[in-house]
Write a structure and sequence with these properties.
alpha+beta; Arc Repressor Mutant, subunit A; three-stranded antiparallel beta sheet; homodimer; DNA-binding
Chain lengths: 113, 113
Amino acid sequence: MEPGGTRISQLRRGVLEFCVLALLAEAELYGFDLVRRLSDVEGLVTSEGTIYPLLSRLRREGWVTTTWAESESGPPRRYYALTEDGRRALGGFTEDWERFRDSVDQLLLKGKP
Amino acid sequence: MEPGGTRISQLRRGVLEFCVLALLAEAELYGFDLVRRLSDVEGLVTSEGTIYPLLSRLRREGWVTTTWAESESGPPRRYYALTEDGRRALGGFTEDWERFRDSVDQLLLKGKP
DNA sequence: TCGGGTACCGTGCAACGCATGGAACCGGGT
DNA sequence: ACCCGGTTCCATGCGTTGCACGGTACCCGA
């Protein structure tokens, strides 16, 4: 299938980033684990090719910090932790999301309750 | 500001298209009017530079048909009408949107009811 | 020793919103 | 008579970001 060809992958744009922040708000996680956790959520399935560039961006923005830790079953893991800036960004986005979601609902579900 | 630089403009991706279809599901409208109507909805403000390429896509997909009509106050208008295919596409997306919205809500609002 | 699971990462493409700019028509103010 | 602003259409190019693809390296069981 052509890349970005599905409707859903367009929906993910700009949201995935903050879904990752939301997961990191509860616990420090590493990249590979984030992929697995997102796969458990309908419509958010993604791959390493998406996650790692995304995590690099988050680091560049100063929204996460990272620490290395050994693993018992493979190469070392890089754990990501939310910064105070990251928490603020997540809060700001959440407000934007709620407004946006309501607007789209209003247009899309007008006539089908 | 850099284009596409805001969080919101990324959210609009892939959604705007179907918001336009939703508006056309109620009445035939022309491009300039669509811009005004979307500006009335929080988070969906857009411009002609966005709408016209989008409408071209919809035509190419066969989701809308167009008819010209004179205007009393300016150049002629091109009115857009939803096709049966367009209505089906809108229905399909609406289902996808509901699932996606619930997933994001679940992640983002976990802990803040 | 060899394959498969774990774990990291970069490069290049495609989609789409938007800034920018251009064209043509109309009416009102100076 | 002339220009300016509103209306209405459209095309071109850029930036962001998800994803396909490919690469490296470690560990373990068959």
